[in-house]
Amino acid sequence: METSQSNEPCTSPSPSPSPSxxxxxxxxxxxxxxxxxxxxxxxxxxxxxxxxxVGPVLHDDGCDTLGFLVPAGTAACWDLPGxxxxxxxxxxxxxxxxxxxxxxxxxxPPGEADLATDPVVLRRALGEAARLIEAADSCR
Length: 140
What we know:
Blueprint: E1 2-4, E2 29-35, H1 36-48, E3 57-60, E4 65-71, E5 84-87, E6 104-108, H2 119-138
Antiparallel strand pairs: 1-5, 2-4, 2-5, 3-4, 3-6
Helix pairs in contact: 1-2
């Protein structure tokens, strides 16, 4: 797995076809990882939005990070500071009821969420979440 911190803006990823990604109804995904506090704020922002815009979300057992499943190819142009996007080199994460990463669990499991979170919408929600956290912390 590789992590991308590109400086090129990306509005939507281009799916990269691969033999392992051809399972019907089971799309390959990349994973955007953020600190748990920012991720939880972003989930709230996404769920309050006009459209049901949040896909499956993972959390680690230590509750330090949240991971948003995004369409495959997102990592190639993800550049949001404070987050990482892990690409899967054509061996994308697959959606199934079991968490794909050992030591994690679903906050929003597949089937209760969209297939994947739109990276443009996620970027906006994470930015808004960071601003809310900064404002809350400065009031202390």
